[in-house]
Amino acid sequence: MKKINLLLCLCFTQFIFAQHKGNYDKNVQISRQNIATSAKMGNATIYGPQSTNPRRNVNPSSSIIIDLNALYNAKASSYTAIFNISQIGPTAEETHELVNERIDNVRNELLATGIKKEDIAVDVISFVPVYEIEVQKKLFSTKYNEVPKGFELQKNIHIQFKKTQQFEMILAACAANEIYNLVKVDYFIENIRAVYKKLQTALVSLVKEEKEYYKMLGFDLSDYNVVMADDKYCYFPKDFYRNYQAYNSVSFEALKKKKGVTKAKKQTSYYYQPISTENYDIVMNPAILEPVVQVGMQIKLVYSPKPKEQKQPPKTEVKTEHKYYVISPDGKIDVKELKTNN
After folding, report:
1. Average pLDDT, stretch 175-183?
2. Beta-carbon count within 10 A of 137 CB
């Protein structure tokens, strides 16, 4: 009885932990094979993914490398949602009226919620005639002719807002007027230079700490030549949405009745996956509640030992003997030494 109770407790605990994991699985498929592994610790089976030793091998080198990365999770100061609206009509005038009526309704509803009139803009995309195929049947032939039947007008509505809570009201207003095509949502930061300045200041401070660290280890970086490189970047949420499918297609009833299974279309879910902070030395605003603009900077310094100066040997004075030649009229040459003060 005790064994049964223990088994039930273990199963219940495993179920509770699974709820925190959610439906997302990087392997896409959900099965018992992905959960249980063959690894064992004593008499108990280990469940879940097994992590390897996170320590990395380091290789000593005569050069010292300081490679630092900083990340800033910046909440957008404003957003712009873009919706596409398409309308067809028998005449150009009626098509314009139908589109403008829907846009005016959206504008009036948004103005009532606090969005300003200047925060709504309309962009005309296309205005073209629509053709249909008309069939002409004759005694010995059939002709297919394109004839104009109306017009198609496409416009984009740009709506700027400052709080994410306003986006729900914008979606409701557009859906009430049969506008469902959300093209994208752009994020904006008013003063991105100030964000880069904060990252720069933090990196400079960290470089000083790294220099002090190497100095305590006995390495004076003033005895090294240094080269450096730096980089900065900015990523927006639209580039960091991932998708997955959570479903189970096993049907035990179909197996019992020995009947075929008609597969249904599986829903694809999306989630926001920001840049991981595991490889960053500095992370500002690490807690993310909503999609953010991620601004980063990197600086890399490589210190190489200065070449040692080779001592030149002392110069030795070379004494030279000066001589002069005396030639007599009869052609006889007499060599005599010239004494100097050197």
Report:
1. 92
2. 7
pTM for the model stands at 0.67
Radius of gyration of the chain (CA): 40
Instruction: Please identify which residue in the block is written with the tokens 């080269």.
Output: 227
pLDDT value at 21 more than 50: no
Residues with Cβ within 8 Å of 195's Cβ and at least 6 positions away in sequence, in order, are 72, 74, 189, 295
Q: What angle do CA 62, 63, 67 make, to 5 degrees?
A: 145
Q: Which domains, and CATH codes, for the chain?
A: 67-75+191-305 (no CATH), 78-188 (3.30.70.2970)
Closest to 223 in 3D by CA, of 308, 127, 293: 308
Q: How far apart are CA 126 and CA 75, in angstroms?
A: 34
Instruction: Please give the biggest Cα pair distance in the chain.
Output: 144
CA–CA separation, 251 and 260 (whole Å):
10
Please answer whether residues 178 and 88 qualify as being in contact, where contact means their C-beta atoms are separated by less than 8 angstroms: no
The 3-state DSSP class for residue 263 equals coil
- Within 10 angstroms of residue 76's Cβ, the number of other Cβ atoms is 20
Pairing of strands 282-284, 293-305: unpaired
Secondary structure of residue 205 in the 3-state scheme: helix
